[in-house]
Each structure stands twice: as C-alpha cells, then as structure tokens.
Amino acid sequence: MKLGLGLYRHMLNREHFQFARQAGATHIVAHLTDYFKGGSFNPRDNQPTGNESGWGRAGDPDKLWTTEELHALRRGVESAGLTLAAVENFDPAHWHDILLDGPKRQAHIENVKEIIRRLGEAGIPIMGYNFSLAGVAGRVTGPFARGGAVSVGMDGPCDTPIPRGMVWNMVYDPDAPAGNQPGITHEELWRRLKGFLDEVLPVAEAAGVRLAAHPDDPPLPTLRGQPRLVYQPRHYQKLIDLNPSPASALEFCIGSLAEMTEGDIYETVDSYSAQQRLGYIHFRNVTGKVPTYRETFIDDGDVDMIRVLEILARNRFEGVLIPDHTPQMNCAAPWHTGMAYTLGYMRAAMKCLGIK
Ligand SMILES: [Mn+2]
C-alpha cells in the first residue's frame, strides 16, 4: 500500500510536491480541473464547497489537457521524488453532454477517449471520475470537528434545482437560457453511465489506463432534484457488473461510503478490495450519515480506520491511499496542517500494521 496526497490544480507546483514528500507521501493524485474560479464564496485554501451557483466556472471547452502538459506534470512530480498515481475528475467543459445526454455527447465521448489516450502516453495509470449531475453539492461548513476545527457536513437534503448551463456544480455555459435542467430518472442515469462505459472502456484498456468511479458525495438518493448513482454500497457492484472490463475500477471513498444509510463499512471494504477493483482510496472519516453528518479528523469519526487498513492489507490492496478532505487546523496554513496530521497518522498506522 502506498501513501499519497491529492493536490488541487493551483497546488501542482514544486512547493507542494516537496510538502507531500516531507509529510511521508510517495504518490500524488492531481486535480487538473480548476474548481476555484468562482469567486470569494469558494476560498482556495479548503476543499471546494461553493453555493447554489456552484463552485465556479468550468474550463475551456476547446482546450483538452495536452500530452505535453501531462508529461510536464509527471516530470515535476518525479523530480521531487514522487510518483504520479492518478488524475482526478474530468472538467465539465469537456464532458457535460455525456452527463446530460446533450447534443454534444458524441464530441464529448471523443474528448474523453482522447484524454485517456493522452494519459496513457504520459504514463498516468488511473483517471478518477464522478458520474453525477449535481456533483458534490448541498454541504455546509462550520466549526464541526474536534476543538472547533472548520469542517464540512450536511444539515438535511438539498432540493434546489440545477440551473441550465450548470452540471456537476460548475457552470459550463454562462449564457444558457433561464430555467432549470430537466429532472431525469435513476434508470436514465444508469443508461447514460452504461453508454459511457461501453464506449470508453475499450479505449482505456488499450491505453493502459483504469477509470476509477467515485461514489456520490453526499450519498443521497436525489440531490438538487436529480437522481444519484452510487448512494448505497451495493450500487458499486451494479457499476462493476455493467461492464466487466478490467479497466473499470473504483475511486473508493471511505468517507462517502460511511455516510451511506445501508451496509457495513468493513464488509463494504472487504467485498470490493477482495474483487481487486479499487483504483485508489480516499481515506477519510466522518460522524453520522446522510442527510446529517460531519467530516471529522481521521482518528475521531465513526469509522475505525485502522480496521479498514487491516482489511485492505489482508486483501492485498497495493494501490494508493490519499487523505481526501480533512478539517482545517487553526494556524496560518489550515489546509496543510490538516493534511500533514492525516498523513502522519496514516504513515504511523501503516508502520504499526507492518504494511509495506
Ligand atoms: Mn472522496
């Protein structure tokens, strides 16, 4: 098992690579989508939360990440003594009509295929994705964690409709006509996912890249009037069974899985790690379940994270774990201290368990 750190786009620089190495990480998961172009309501020193207008603007629809850009990122990571494990999340600008089944769907399928080919050329083995219309939305921020540390949680469902021009909590068309995205059924969302996987997984296999699916965060049956996909642990099995390609993997978020109302988190970890379907792991802890929960420090939530590590080791998971989100600590560098605290805890736990 390997210890990694996830970095937002504005953190993909030498200072942050060295920070990760200093805290004991050996791997990096890189976000290339910039979630923080939305203004002051979405400060860059914490995970993106945003407001009803989303996190902000999506990227340039005509500029896919280039092979050279990906190569340069990998070189930068490796020059700090680290390995680039994955890229996390497509930019809504590049694939919104796959999620929405819109008029540009086929062009966006080609976008995704090209991005995957370029990742393969750059030697990046995993692409994390989240097949969701509402995305990560409807959460609140407050001094919820131990000692009043600022954290994120949920205080009930969020039914505010998604305006046209927005998907996955980002604005891809600021000039879209007034009105909301039409509501769809769960069956229709699964149909869209299957179409996506059937078209893209053969390209991923050929490129040597695995697609890793994040569950819904937060995992409610519906959010903003739209269906969710993986909001109970059993839905991950449905996703795997849709297409048996070995390139179909999971971006296994312990926090989101623990927030689900069904299932036992330890059985869930056991079941999917035994199937060797885990791409990489978001290693975080929570207290409570949807629609009322709080993100906690790694050692302070409902989940026995040491027990999770033991199960992963028993099932011979050899991939990367990253902290995902952490509460912010009171000091001049709230994000960094939260991450360093979590990485130190994970490193010690792995050492004590004899995990290599
Ligand atoms: Mn996660």
- Helix/strand order: EHEEHEHHEEEEEHEEEHEHHEEEHEH
State the end-to-end distance: 6 Å
Q: Which kinds of small molecule does this entry bind, naming each only once?
A: manganese (II) ion
Gyration radius (Cα, Å) is: 19 Å
Low-confidence stretches: none
Number of helices: 10
Secondary structure layout:
Blueprint: E1 2-7, H1 14-22, E2 27-30, E3 56-57, H2 67-79, E4 83-88, H3 92-99, H4 105-121, E5 126-129, E6 140-145, E7 149-155, E8 166-167, E9 170-171, H5 186-207, E10 210-213, E11 222-223, E12 226-227, H6 233-242, E13 248-253, H7 254-258, H8 265-274, E14 278-282, E15 285-289, E16 292-296, H9 305-314, E17 320-322, H10 334-352
Parallel strand pairs: 1-2, 1-17, 2-4, 3-9, 4-5, 5-10, 10-13, 13-14, 14-17
Antiparallel strand pairs: 6-7, 7-16, 8-9, 11-12, 15-16
Helix pairs in contact: 3-4, 4-5, 8-9
Bound molecules: manganese (II) ion (MN).
Considering the chains and any ligands shown, give keywords for the structure.
356 residues, alpha/beta, four-stranded antiparallel sheet, binds manganese (II) ion
Commentary on this structure:
Strand 8 and strand 9 form a beta hairpin. The mean pLDDT is 96. The protein is built from ten helices and 17 strands. With 356 residues, the chain is an alpha/beta fold. The strands form four sheets. Strands 1-2-4-5-10-13-14-17 form an eight-stranded parallel beta barrel, surrounded by four helices. The chain has a four-stranded antiparallel sheet with strand order 6-7-16-15. The protein has a three-stranded mixed sheet with strand order 3-9-8, with helices on one face. The chain is 35% helix and 20% strand. The protein binds manganese (II) ion. The site of manganese (II) ion has 7 residues, from helix 7.
